[in-house]
Amino acid sequence: MKATIRWAGEVKFEAESDSGHTVVIDGPPEYGGQNQGVRPMELMLLGVGGCSSFDVLHILKKSRQDVTDCVAQVEAERVDAVPAVFKSIHLHFVVTGRKLKESQVKRAVELSAEKYCSASIMLTNAGVDVTHSYEIHEAEA
């Protein structure tokens, strides 16, 4: 896996993934940024949420659950020091579907947290307190 990060002036960068997708990264105004892209730590948080969401949805689909929506709400707390690394991250999944089995949703979230989500497991191994929760909503007919 590779990525290329190109400087685009001031504190703005264009990041290109190995698969050819581009994301704009920009710094805060106090460092010369113009708020034209995500901050680097925000991007890490988006990666954790995306990785875990992929796992949860994939596991639920494999277990034949009729999922109509899946939203991960991700919150993080950073230490009050330099470097301002993550102290804790909480992922809350709002899973909507038809006649979803709670045991299957719980299992999907646990498997992502403990076995499959490389991003959250890597951060957990680095000392970040990563927690998960979920709620289930019945889809409207």
Automatic annotation (TrEMBL):
It holds the Pfam family OsmC. It comes from the Bacteria. Signal peptide: none annotated. NCBIfam families: PRK10738.1. This is Osmotically inducible protein C. It comes from Ketobacter alkanivorans. The lineage of its organism: Bacteria, Pseudomonadati, Pseudomonadota, Gammaproteobacteria, Pseudomonadales.
